[in-house]
Amino acid sequence: MRASLLVLAVFVGSSLALVCQEIDGRLTQIDVSNGQVFGVNSGTAIYTRYGNSWVQLPGALKHVTVGPAGVWGVNTENLIYKLVGGRWVQAQGLLKQIDAGGDQFVAGVNMQDNIFCLNRDATVTTRGGETSIPWNLLPGALKYYSCGPYSCWGVNSAGQIYVMKGVTPNACMGSKAWQLVPGALSMIEVSTDGSVYGVNSAKDVYRRDGVSAANPAGTGWTYLSMCGKSKHVSYDLGVLWVISLEDKILTCS
Prior knowledge:
By secondary structure, this protein is mainly beta. The protein has one helix at residues 120-125; strands at residues 4-6, 15-17, 20-26, 29-33, 36-40, 46-50, 53-57, 63-67, 70-74, 79-84, 87-94, 97-99, 106-109, 115-118, 136-138, 144-147, 151-155, 161-165, 178-181, 187-190, 196-199, 205-209, 220-225, 230-236, 239-244, 248-252. The longest helix has 6 residues, at 120-125. 42% of the residues are buried.
């Protein structure tokens, strides 16, 4: 596909204009971390980015994630898989969405919006075939959950945004006390460096400002203007990867 450069108009106030470039391919969901890019398309095919090309991986997933905890995913039956030695192995449990962005721990939500996380030791040693692994059940209910180096963020079915502080590799549940964050989003992603981005019900993209280890909840939201609407985002190494409503793939900065 020929790349097209989308130059965006400048907004003022709590908004920021991005310059985005469309790259080849079509995906419905994408995740990026430490220079790695993974995604799935509408047919549940799995892809990773090598240089300027997409390489299809074996298997079928509806959601894939990459991060310090490795590469994980869930399929249309909500079965959980981990990429081990170049092949997908099934891990015990059921989740509809999973995130590997925590400090060597994974987290996610199931079909009833129950929230789970798996501490580092179990995350690292899981090789598939275990009859049981020690998932931790968090309080509350979320439809999407994502973790970074020092906090986890989620949104519920009403679009409310919550942050969990105090998460560590061996205490992925954190403080177990949710902090409600002003705003409304449909999905949210925390990057490996702790940056927080999300998409709202109007398919607009926002960035959380002021996020740090000292202030995991941040200070406010900035609207990121770009041509067209978006349904999924992921951020890594200064680049925001965006999936449009038409499944187009954009890299923005």
